[in-house]
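Researcher: Sequence recovery benchmark, item below. Answer with residues only.
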């Protein structure tokens, strides 16, 4: 009896109490149950074998014995479980409950997450209030939403002031939505279909000249409409043909992701995955794709590509920024999407166009979703560009012994932008909770000063 009590006393030390959890704190529940179990009136009825089972089960959970099978999705001083769930863990069925063939508890957690994210299946504009705060829409001004998507940001701008708006998007689906928006706001919205590089010709057709725009908004990356449509081939979780063209076939000469995987050699695939996806296993994945191509068949669908990547990462369990399970193929999909749509070059060109089309004191607001995009925007605003292109070499790699004349230094430091945001802004915790796809968003804003 004494040895059993000592064992449980040591075990209790592994379970800190969090008073803020109330009855949902597992540490408190364990203490209460141990106290009741070892009361004098119950000593003669104490089941030693049951105590051992309880102790072993709890000890394994406390020591994270199951960490290789079930990753913790949140860091907390308490479990946050309901009393019923605490009772299940404390029962003698706990080991069976946690066996791989019976993942009911964890399946409920993941289903709850999926239901939560399903509510946001339709496109939800990211950092909407921050965009309006920096853009400051005013009456009788002209703005451009360079990445219209589903029109969330555009609608908010139009509602904020009696202004006019030009919408641009390369996706014909988004273009149709922009035309619908133009009917809701007569004579205020001008929809345009095309890429950033096509904008000068499109603006010329509607007689919009340089230095005539009051504000420009970029919301880079892939829209929810594209991700949620499995037939477009953007999503890891939905099976479909590997297309990934944001133009949705508007340009018949544009290569698809499937054609990239079928024609690129191993070194080219390695560079795509390593540079555009920052994938640490880029070499192995590229080699496996080539082997599959020659020995079995071309990779045609998203699930086939996911299976290929998973075969290269058999023991890996990746988590996203919210500590949720993430597919091993996420970065490979990102890399292919960027390559197929020439996204980084288009982004760079869009930043250059902003400099020429904005008025003096015009406002620029950008939202990026990964470091490759954010680096280009940051260097344009800081003036770290060479021949209208963001400097590909980080400043930390430049030689401190290199001596330049003053004119060259002034040329490097010259920038038409003054940053509004001292540091990059990120979405609030509440927004990330409501819309998990906003978790990677990075907002920068600047004013054209010359």
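Model:
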């Amino acid at each position: 009896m004494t040895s059993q009590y000592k064992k449980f006393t040591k075990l209790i030390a592994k379970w800190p109490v969090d008073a803020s959890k109330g009855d949902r704190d597992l540490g408190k529940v364990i203490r209460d149950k141990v106290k009741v179990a070892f009361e004098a009136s119950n000593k003669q009825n104490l089941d030693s074998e049951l105590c051992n089972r309880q102790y072993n089960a709890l000890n394994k959970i406390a020591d994270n014995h199951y960490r290789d099978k079930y990753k913790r999705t949140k860091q907390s001083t308490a479990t946050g479980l309901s009393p019923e769930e605490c009772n299940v863990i404390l029962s003698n069925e706990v080991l069976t409950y946690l066996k791989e063939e019976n993942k009911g508890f964890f399946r409920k957690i993941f289903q709850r997450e999926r239901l939560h994210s399903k509510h946001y299946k339709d496109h939800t504009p990211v950092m909407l209030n921050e965009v309006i705060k920096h853009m400051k829409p005013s009456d009788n001004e002209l703005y451009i939403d360079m990445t219209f998507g589903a029109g969330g940001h555009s609608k908010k701008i139009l509602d904020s002031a009696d202004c006019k708006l030009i919408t641009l998007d390369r996706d014909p689906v988004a273009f149709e939505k922009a035309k619908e928006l133009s009917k809701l706001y007569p004579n205020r919205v001008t929809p345009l279909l095309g890429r950033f590089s096509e904008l000068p010709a499109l603006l010329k057709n509607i007689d919009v000249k340089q230095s005539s725009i009051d504000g420009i908004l970029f919301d880079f990356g892939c829209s929810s409409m594209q991700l949620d449509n499995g037939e477009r081939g953007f999503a890891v979780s939905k099976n479909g043909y590997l297309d990934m063209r944001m133009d949705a076939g508007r340009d018949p000469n544009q290569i698809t992701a499937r054609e990239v995987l079928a024609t690129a050699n191993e070194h080219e695939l390695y560079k795509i995955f390593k540079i555009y996806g920052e994938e640490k296993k880029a070499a192995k994945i590229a080699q496996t794709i080539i082997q599959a191509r020659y020995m079995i068949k071309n990779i045609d669908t998203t699930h086939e590509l996911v299976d290929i990547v998973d075969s290269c990462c058999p023991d890996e369990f990746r988590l996203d920024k919210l500590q949720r399970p993430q597919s091993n193929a996420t970065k490979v999909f990102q890399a292919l999407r960027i390559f197929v749509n020439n996204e980084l070059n288009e982004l760079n060109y869009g930043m250059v166009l902003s400099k020429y089309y904005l008025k003096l004191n015009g406002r620029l607001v950008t939202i990026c979703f990964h470091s490759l995009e954010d680096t280009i925007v940051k260097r344009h605003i800081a003036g770290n560009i060479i021949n209208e292109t963001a400097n590909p070499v980080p400043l930390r790699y430049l030689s401190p012994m290199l001596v330049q004349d003053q004119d060259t230094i002034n040329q490097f430091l010259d920038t038409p932008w003054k940053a509004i945001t001292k540091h990059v802004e990120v979405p609030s915790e509440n927004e990330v909770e409501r819309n998990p796809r906003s978790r990677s968003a990075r907002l920068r804003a600047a004013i054209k000063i010359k």
